[in-house]
Write a structure and sequence with these properties.
There is one protein chain. The protein has 293 residues and is mainly α. It folds into 2 domains: 2-90; 121-289, no CATH class. It has 11 helices and 2 strands; from the N terminus they run H-H-H-E-E-H-H-H-H-H-H-H-H. Helix 3 runs antiparallel to helix 6 (177-200). The two termini are 51 Å apart.
Length: 293
């Protein structure tokens, strides 16, 4: 459509120039005869010849008209070229954006595969029975404990219930500390690559949130629930348990502390909502944690 309009404009300019040229040509041909009608005495031919000087102005006007028409045509062509270049830039930007989205999405799925492998390698042993992969996740999920203080529960009852839940979880997690730490470290690395993709790409906030949600949706709320449970366990230990109780119960204190170091950033990033206001701060915190600031 743009090219057709440009062609129409060029044709109009050409016709405009031709009309001017024909008009000036007619004037230049008829001019001597017109002058001769009034100056038939050829003895005054010198004067008559001088009258042709006026034609110079006509031809100068013709040249000026040609220049004006040329400038108008070039202006129109430049405007059309600028419009076409603008369309090409927009198309290139959209193509580049689509490439970034596809590339980033592909890398996200690579990290999901990595996360899935570390889940499949997770091995939990309890009461002499081994649980591997999905069975281990299911076992940990079935033994998740979340104590809420109700209105009919006194403070002492709530604290006792908390301590009982802490001890039960320690007896499950403690003997499997090394396996859980391995899982936590691998999961942390996968999420760190996800953060790198999000914080260092040029996509807009909406697409970055979509990529982040894509990752954690595939991770699943069950796995995230286990990650949260491990993080909360160490926090609850520090809040409700004392050293004497560990000795009396013969359990290891803060056995999940190292795992929490790796899992807490995952939990925090999972609950973060990226927007224009907090994105620079989240990016700065991430870069600072990597020692890049």
């Amino acid at each position: 459509m743009t090219i057709e309009k440009s062609a129409m404009k060029e044709v109009n300019y050409s016709q405009f120039f031709i009309r001017i040229a024909i008009g000036l040509l007619i004037i230049s041909i008829g001019f001597p005869f017109f002058i001769n009608c009034f100056f038939s005495d050829w003895s005054k031919s010198g004067t008559f010849g001088d009258t042709f000087g006026a034609l110079n102005a006509l031809f100068s006007g013709l040249a000026l008209a040609g220049v004006i028409v040329t400038i108008m045509m070039q202006k129109s062509e430049l405007k059309n070229q600028q419009h076409e270049l603008s369309l090409q830039r927009s198309e290139m930007q959209e193509t580049r954006k689509e490439f970034l989205i596809n590339r980033t999405t592909s890398l996200v799925y690579n990290q999901l595969d990595r996360f899935e492998r570390c889940l499949n390698e997770l091995s939990i042993t309890h009461a002499g029975k081994p649980y591997i992969g999905n069975d281990a996740i299911s076992f940990l999920n079935e033994n998740r404990i979340h104590v809420m203080q109700s209105s009919d529960m006194s403070e002492e009852q709530f604290i006792k219930a908390k301590k009982d839940s802490i001890v039960k979880l320690i007896r499950i997690y403690g003997p499997n500390k090394s396996q859980i730490e391995k899982f936590a470290h691998n999961a942390y690395n996968a999420v760190e690559v996800l953060k790198m993709l999000i914080f260092l790409t040029e996509l807009d906030i909406k697409h970055l949130n979509d990529i982040k949600n894509l990752f954690f949706t595939n991770v699943g709320f069950i796995n995230m629930g286990i990650i949260e449970q491990i993080c909360e366990l160490t926090e609850d230990e520090l809040k409700y348990m004392n050293s004497n109780e560990y000795d009396n119960l013969d359990i290891e204190p803060c056995s999940m502390f190292r795992s929490k170091i790796f899992l807490k950033p995952i939990k925090e990033f999972y609950y973060s909502k990226l927007n224009q206001e907090n994105f620079p701060f989240l990016k700065a915190e991430w870069m600072d944690s990597r020692g890049e600031i």
